[in-house]
Amino acid sequence: MKDGALKLPSYIASFGVYQDFYTGNYLTNETSTAISFIGSINTFLGTSVSLVSGTLYDRGYFYHLVVAGSLLQSFSLFMLSLAKPNQYYQIFLTQGLGSGIAVGLLYIPSLAIVSHYFRRKRTLVMAFVTMGSSLGAIIHPIMLNNLLNGRLGFANGVRASAGLVSALLLIACLCMRTRLDPPTTPVNYIVAARKCLRDVPFFFTTVGAFLFQIGLYYPTFFLQLDSTQHGISITFSSYSLVILNASSSVGRVSAGYIAGYIGVLNLTVISAISCGLILLGTIGLSSLASVVIIAVLFGYFQGVYTALLSPLMATLTHNPSELGHSGWMGISFFLGGFGSLIGTPISGALLSTYIKLYLVETRSVLWGESTAIAASLYTLINQSQIAALAGAAMYIFMRFVYIRVQKKNES
């Protein structure tokens, strides 16, 4: 019922295809930093606008949000197909701003409406509902790689993709219906923000989310480009995101079952630490096997982490009426989203310098010196991955403080 709306985040997860295509063909005058900023602003707006859409949803504007978001997304993608080569502002306005706002308007209503129909097994149902996003994250990279690099080219390829997304959104708009009345007293998120920011476990969680998301989207944006630049075949590199997203879908579905045995807090810590360590391992990317290993492992733990964000906030929130996307959850997602806004442009700047030195200058007489410089710069790239590990450490502190507070309250 909601697959059309939930495939929108999967379109964000396919930005690595656009990153690779823009860098090598369509925005050749722009740096990797500028190009990745299109995807990062799209991701950030998809999170931050949710704070506004969540408030409007609580006030009964469900249909207004769904229709407006669907029209804006369809309009943005079709306008993207009209963008000319090396016209950065055209792509930034359509794919960065327009599509990002549309995702922010649609994502919360399409998820929140599940609570109107399911109570007893809501978590399990949510896991299956989000499979729409996972399925789209597998389909879109395959479709985009074949369209953009095939006979159709950029303009017609984007139009074909926009047509598919528009058709799915139309189905979603026709199928989704509210069943319950909006709450009589919507949450005042200003009051909720003052309260939740004084809560120590919530504070560590929000700081952890900010730091963690600085490095979280590096593979999503750069794995295909990075593998191509390391000499791996273009055909296989185009499927690196497919492998990552397929593994992520497995992680999302299995997270609910595993959390039932070891707990949401413990699994969040495990998934965050695992992602951080795998991100550090991207420095060893050099062969087809290494790409597969990184894509499978990182994709799985990224899926687990993503699936646990909402249950984690539900665990930390004292009053269930303050949980929603205009309450504690929305505030945490909004503040943590700034990490995704700055993380990928920083990585893009350092990666482009590394590629220039390591893959071009190392073939010159100054091979040894250039390699040393490139290795140093690639170590700097992993500063964003180190930030992700720092975020995982914040989750460890959160778990420690939360357990202490719980024991204190029980005594």
Task: Please give the share of residues in helix.
Answer: over 70%
Computed structural class = mainly alpha
Sequence stretches where pLDDT stays below 50 over 5 or more residues: 1-8, 361-370
| Rg | 21 Å
Number of strands: 0
How many DSSP H or I helices? Answer: 18
Distance between the termini: 46 Å
Strand content bin: under 5%
What is the H-and-E element order? HHHHHHHHHHHHHHHHHH
Report the average pLDDT across residues. 80
Shape: globular
The biggest beta sheet is recorded as:
none
Keyphrases for this structure?
411 residues; mainly alpha; 18 helices; 0% strand
Description:
The chain is an all-alpha fold and 411 residues long. It is built from 18 helices and no strands. Helix 4 runs antiparallel to helix 8 and helix 10 packs antiparallel against helix 18. The protein is globular and about 65 Å long. The N terminus is likely disordered.
Topology:
Layout: H1 3-13, H2 15-26, H3 32-58, H4 62-80, H5 88-112, H6 122-129, H7 131-148, H8 153-175, H9 189-196, H10 200-216, H11 218-229, H12 234-237, H13 240-262, H14 264-280, H15 288-316, H16 328-359, H17 367-381, H18 383-410
Helix pairs in contact: 1-5, 1-7, 1-8, 2-3, 2-7, 2-11, 3-5, 3-16, 4-5, 4-8, 7-8, 7-13, 10-16, 10-18, 11-16, 13-14, 13-15, 14-15, 14-18, 16-17
What is this structure, in a nutshell?
With 411 residues, the protein is mostly helical. The protein is built from 18 helices and no strands. Helix 1 (3-13) packs across helix 5, helix 1 (3-13) crosses helix 7 (131-148) and helix 14 (264-280) runs antiparallel to helix 18.
